[in-house]
Amino acid sequence: MTNIFGWDSVQYSESKKAMIILDQTLLPNKESFISINKESLLKEAIKLLKVRGAPAIGIAAAIGAAVVLERYPAKTNSELINEFNRLSKELISLRPTAVNLKNSLVRLQKALIEHSFGYNVKELKALLLEEALKIKEEDIAANIKMAQHALTLLKPGDTILTYCNAGHLAVSRYGTALSPIYLAKERGIDLKVYVCETRPLLQGARLTTYELKKAGVDFTLICDNMVAHLMSQGKVNAVITGCDRVAANGDTANKIGTHTLSVSASYYNIPHYIIGPSTTIDYSCPSGSQIKIEERESAEITDMWYNKKMAPPGIKVYNPAFDITPAKLISAIITETGIYRFPYKFKIND
Ligand code: MRU
């Protein structure tokens, strides 16, 4: 597949010895790439959603940790590993639902421990970066395979409804939910897309439309509360979303509102496909009830960005960032290893 954007949302710069990310909080108004080489900047970027989307968070945490630890003056391997463990624990707590964050850091930790006797501090630091960049490369390959699998479920002329942003911005390259749409575009297959704005942070309106517009995809933006109306009029052929954590039984955490979409789709006999790399499957989590749901600041609901009030001050607000779609409602979960249907039994390796 071609990278039509010419950049990735998370990149490593050898000359700057830094991670470069596109600041997604500024989109669609400003394309600003920022350089990250300090722990405070890395944490801020993850917490404030400058980098976001489950796979992208995992990649950014891994490359970011490698970059930050490169500057850490460890004298011994165990000093370096202790510092990695501290940083890793703090990073994981910033976005507790997206499991890719934890999976990437656990993978780096394993690499450190495995090589802690044969390698010196300098070599361990280099190993961290090498492993982090491998995670990104593997994610790119996974996205291409997911696009190919998912496209077999669609037909020319279909209209897809998508939610939040599970595209190029949210991963290493191409996207999960949006990857079959980009592949279809490349192959000249006509697909149309409805993009839900995705309150409260408008990842659909700000980010998905930004990238679909750049890609020349035919799309229409709608408010989240218009979904059932569109479905009732036969205007949607398939719902496609990403995922932040898939439990072993297929229950899936994704952006708050995905569950509502899925219930509506099921009522109207419209398939709901979930696309995500196998790094989003949490085999240690038996079902959705064990997934921790991130809760975020009330201001995301009450205050417009740029500090415009959307609700009176001092009111009670509840702001869960994700919800769980029960496995039974999901028509198929697509990973790089194939297309899975209920009851879900995922292949661990390709
Ligand atoms: O809070 P966000 O913007 O990180 O939430 C993102 C989503 O819910 C995406 O659908 C999910 O991470 C999949 S991204 C390929």
- What number of structural domains do the residues give? 2
And the CATH topology of the largest domain?
Rossmann fold
> In this structure, how is the largest beta sheet organized?
7 strands, mixed
The rough form would be described as globular
Given the helix and strand composition, which structural class is it?
alpha/beta
Give the strand order of the largest sheet, numbering strands 1, 2, ... along the chain.
Answer: 6-5-4-7-10-15-16
What value does the Rg take, in angstroms?
20 Å
Q: What's the number of extended β-strand segments?
A: 16
Strand percentage lies at 15-25%
Which ligands appear in the coordinates?
Answer: 5-S-methyl-1-O-phosphono-5-thio-D-ribulose
CATH homologous group name of the largest domain: Translation initiation factor eif-2b, domain 2
CATH top-level class of the largest domain? Alpha Beta
- Assigned CATH architecture of the largest domain: 3-Layer(aba) Sandwich
Overall helicity: 25-40%
Mean pLDDT, to the nearest integer, reads 96
Keywords:
four-stranded mixed beta sheet, seven-stranded mixed beta sheet, binds 5-S-methyl-1-O-phosphono-5-thio-D-ribulose, alpha/beta, 10 helices, Four Helix Bundle (Hemerythrin (Met), subunit A), 350 residues, 38% helix, Rossmann fold
